[in-house]
Design brief:
mainly alpha, 135 residues
Length: 135
């Protein structure tokens, strides 16, 4: 195995782990938003909340996380395989998302508010940022 193949394998493992950590962060965010929603509106079933999550504009900011996770999954499912550039691109996208390098003010405001109000989410956010910084 040459160094290029080794580097690709290492970066692939790194992205897969980062994706897994992003998925955990996304779940914490969804759970947090559900708790807020149910506090205001009463308990709902999982199906009802999924419908709200998908269709309510107040939750659109979470799609930045779910869309990135789906894009990474789709990349790994490509028949032609993945390239180092593709992997590094998604690692960069993840870093930008967590660094709040977004032009979307609604996203920044809502995510910042959740980070300020939920120490578990803040900790997972920081852990993932540290993990990505070592890439």
């Amino acid at each position: 195995m040459n160094s290029t193949d080794s580097n690709l394998m290492q970066k692939t493992r790194l992205l897969k782990e980062a994706r897994f950590q992003l998925l955990k962060l996304h779940k914490l965010l969804v759970d947090s938003e559900r708790a807020v929603y149910e506090h205001r509106n009463g308990q709902v079933t999982s199906g009802q909340f999924l419908n709200v999550l998908i269709n309510d504009n107040d939750f659109q900011w979470l799609k930045k996380f779910s869309n990135l996770i789906v894009e990474i999954d789709e990349m790994f499912d490509l028949d032609d395989g993945v390239s180092l550039e593709m992997i590094e691109n998604y690692l960069s996208k993840m870093t930008e998302l967590l660094d709040l390098d977004e032009t979307d003010e609604d996203f920044k405001n809502k995510y910042t508010k959740v980070l300020q109000n939920n120490s578990e989410i803040q900790e997972k956010h920081q852990q993932l940022k540290i993990f990505l910084s070592k890439s």
